[in-house]
Amino acid sequence: MSWQHRKPEGVGAVELTPDGFTAPVSIPLDEDGYFGRDCPSCKGVFKMRKDEWDALPDGVELTCPYCGHRDEHSAFISEAQLNRVRAAAHGLARQFVHEKLNDIFGKSFGSGSGRSSGSGSFLSVEVHYKPGAPPPIESLPEIAEKATRRVVACSACGNRHAVYSATAFCPVCGPRPATETVLEAIQAARDSLALEDRLPEEDRETLRAAGVFERAAVEALKSVVSLFEQFMGEQFEKRVTDAAALTAGKGNVFQRLDDAAQLFADHGGLDLPALAGADRWQRLRRTFAQRHVLTHNGGIVDGKFLAQVPHSSLTVGQRLVISRDDADRALNDLEAIVQAVSSAP
After folding, report:
1. Rounded Cα distance, 339 and 276, in Å
2. 178 with 235: CB under 8 angstroms?
3. CA gap 144, 163 in Å, rounded
4. Structural contact between residues 71 and 40, judged by C-beta atoms closer than 8 angstroms
5. What crossing angle do the helices spanning 201-209 and 212-239 adopt, rounded to 10°?
6. pLDDT at position 126
7. Does 170 map to a domain?
8. Domain assignment present for 137
9. Within a domain: 201
């Protein structure tokens, strides 16, 4: 049996080349047809479907779904996959070298046993070479990857990728639409708030007493403003041709609710307060004012907050207390306006 046929299981047909040989090495798939990729920048792990991968053009670059790092696809091979490829190369090389050495020594010395004879002051030695047994066929290491719980289908290119965390990019075509990522973030914030419901009562009360759940509510409410900014910024760029010039020098304009509404009214053809509804718009104003106090004033009410929320029962110097209901309501308000704006012509 030639060395090409003593290859490890999982190695494809060996093709001889002027420089040596090449052979494909299979990468095991999970039960859903996905294989792993590792980001060389953030080290995040994700998976792609084999059938969709095969349909991509040669030399395609990939984008990390978590951090957005873009690189040639070979840069995303995982360490476990690389070890499998190395093992395949090692196993093939051993078989190749063994056979070539047998050929060399066999041609040089023939086969059989050695013999020597002597006459006078001269000694004659004959050397024969007996081929040894070829190396055992090696096994390639298995690849154990964690099962994923979430598959994201890109609305732009249709390719799917399985992830372990929040994702803002498609591995194939880059940044995902803000509408999708913001709605996913809203649901993630809701899930975070609901974690307390899954805890035993004693643990739940201990954590509540330590302020853990209030902190989760605060973070969820604060995220509403950053998600609004992300979504509205993308929408403004999509709807307004000179968006960059119109927002230049205005700072974080989409963190200021009424200023954002004015921009859309003047240049984007949308009436944000009307799309949200009067009651929801007023609640969003309160949420934005609360976020400012929480972020920039340590949660302590000041005169600026009371000017923005004139019907508040709080007084200067009091501390804002954010409940789970407050956070849930703010997330619902954000989701409603995101859906309304994304559906608007």
Report:
1. 10
2. yes
3. 16
4. yes
5. 80
6. 66
7. no
8. no
9. yes
Question: What is the C-alpha separation between 140 and 274, in angstroms, rounded?
Answer: 63
Q: What are the Cα distances from residue 83, in Å, to 61, 87, 120, 198, 242? A: 22, 6, 60, 40, 51
Q: What span, in angstroms and rounded, lies between the C-alpha atoms of 42 and 57? A: 25
Q: Which two tokens stand for residue 72?
A: 């040639």
| Torsion angle, alpha carbons of 83, 84, 90, 92, to 10 | -160
**Token pair belonging to 202:** 């004693």
Q: Which residue has the tokens 């070829």?
A: 134
Mean local confidence (pLDDT), 162-184: 94
DSSP β-bridge partners for residue 123: 118
The verdict on residue 190 lying in a domain is yes
- Tens of pLDDT, residue by residue over 254-291, are 999 999 999 999 999 999 999 999 999 999 999 999 99
Please give the Cα distance from 168 to 44 (Å, whole number).
13
| Counted domains in the chain | 1
Instruction: Quote the mean pLDDT of the chain.
Output: 89
Which sign does the torsion angle of CA 249, 251, 254, 256 carry?
negative
Question: Is residue 61 a contact partner of residue 53, using CB atoms and an 8 Å limit?
Answer: no
Single-letter code of the amino acid located at 102 = N
pLDDT tens for 224-239 read 999 999 999 999 999 9
Looking up tokens 């992300």, which residue turns up? Answer: 230
Position 151 pLDDT exceeds 70: yes
Q: Which two tokens stand for residue 236?
A: 């403004």
**Average pLDDT score over residue span 136-146:** 82
* Tokens representing residue 145 in the block: 């990857």
Tell me the two tokens of residue 56. Answer: 């991509």
For residue 269, give both structure tokens: 């053809």
Q: What is the pTM of this model?
A: 0.78
The CA distance from 72 to 65, in Å, is: 14
**Residue 215 pLDDT > 60, yes or no?**
yes
Cα dihedral 308→313→319→325 (10° resolution): -90
Instruction: Quote the domain boundaries for residue 303.
Output: 177-343
